[in-house]
Specification:
By secondary structure, this protein is an alpha+beta fold. Helices cover 19% and strands 26% of the residues. It has 2 domains: 49 residues, Orthogonal Bundle (434 Repressor (Amino-terminal Domain)); 140 residues, Ribbon (Umud Fragment, subunit A), CATH 2.10.109.10. The strands form 4 sheets. The protein has an 8-stranded mixed β-sheet with strand order 4-8-9-14-10-11-12-13, with no helix packed on it. Strands 1-2 form a two-stranded antiparallel ribbon. The chain has a two-stranded antiparallel ribbon with strand order 3-7.
Length: 247
């Protein structure tokens, strides 16, 4: 007698795990995102192959970027449950996420013009104003403290552009920057202002024998020339702590 084949077991997607990590009910996420409960169920249960555009409506509600949700478990800040200090009880005893999660780090929007960008989405430093993307990154406090050895308030994420640092950093890779570093010590990778006041990643080396102090600006790609400038002419945005690569 023929037996009916069992349907393959569905694997929960990153959207399901992101919602669970935020301790949010499906009904609450439907209310916040505007996506139907039926569509949400399909996305969570893998009945629809996830794309980034599917996840954009959920990003603000969950406090994760679409990339983090899509690659759940492979991005820093995913796979952990939200800390109790990041939720407050609603009336009726349910818990609701309030504000950004601990460890949320802003990302600079290198492709945006500053005209018309709301003040809350601009990072000001001296005479510069850098546009921020509306969605930040969420990293576990333990990752920031034990691996990066810094605090969330000092960090920025930057998407790189160009091939000057290939193969170390490829165009489109994102780097985490500690903005507390304003001098190139120790030698290493730093985010600096270029001639056009954009932000680029370069390898900086202090020429200790020079007076006044000079800095060697090095590209890992041999097709790009090495430069030397006085330390006084160099504006450092921060030190590169690590690179986030898409796989």
């Amino acid at each position: 007698m023929a037996r009916r084949a069992k349907a393959p077991k569905l694997q929960k997607t990153g959207l399901f795990h992101a919602r669970e990590a935020r301790r949010m009910s499906r009904s609450e996420l439907v209310r916040r995102s505007g996506v139907s409960k039926q569509q949400l169920s399909r996305l969570e249960n893998g009945l629809i192959r996830l794309r980034l555009d599917h996840l954009k409506p959920f990003a603000n509600a969950l406090g994760y970027s679409p990339e983090q949700i899509l690659l759940w478990g492979r991005f820093p800040g995913t796979g952990d449950h939200i800390e109790s200090s990041d939720v407050l009880p609603e009336r009726g005893g349910r818990e609701e996420l309030v504000g950004p999660a601990k460890g949320q780090v802003p990302e600079l929007d290198t492709r945006a013009g500053l005209g018309g960008v709301p003040a809350r989405e601009v990072r000001k430093e001296g005479r510069h104003a850098d546009a921020l993307k509306p969605e930040g990154w969420v990293f576990p406090p333990s990752f920031i403290r034990e691996q990066l050895h810094t605090s969330a308030g000092r960090l920025l994420v930057l998407e790189t552009d160009g091939d000057s640092m290939a193969p170390t950093i490829m165009s489109g890779d994102r780097v985490i920057i500690d903005t507390a570093y304003k001098t190139p010590t120790p030698d290493g990778l730093y985010a600096i202002r270029d001639t056009f006041e954009g932000i680029v990643i370069k390898r900086l080396q202090l020429i200790r024998s020079s007076k006044p102090t000079r800095i060697k600006i090095i590209s890992d790609n041999a097709n790009h020339a090495t430069e030397e400038v006085p330390l006084s002419e160099l504006e450092i945005v921060g030190k590169v702590l690590c690179c986030l690569k898409m796989v």
